Write the structure tokens for this entry.
Amino acid sequence: MNVYLDDHRICPKGFVLAKNAEECIALLKHAEVETLSLDYDLGWGQPTALEVVHYIVESKRFPKEIYLHTSSPSGRMQMYQLLARHAPMEVMLHNGPMPI
């Protein structure tokens, strides 16, 4: 399964949309996620994707490939640094969006 976490953008073909951190974590808990693409800001007053990244690191349920498509520079930096520090070598981590 491929998961796209975003509260506004259109979900790419071949991905399952998660509109908030809770939905994304539920998918990560109950399915094998191949590719994960993360937006950081998920709505006013809502948990950010950093909560998802913390779940991934703590549970060690790393997708095979992770993209950070957020437009938040500080959010991207926080997520990238945490994932880069803890992800196994075989995880492909991209500090930007998926190629079109």
Q: What stands out?
A: The chain has a mean pLDDT of 97. The radius of gyration is 12 Å.
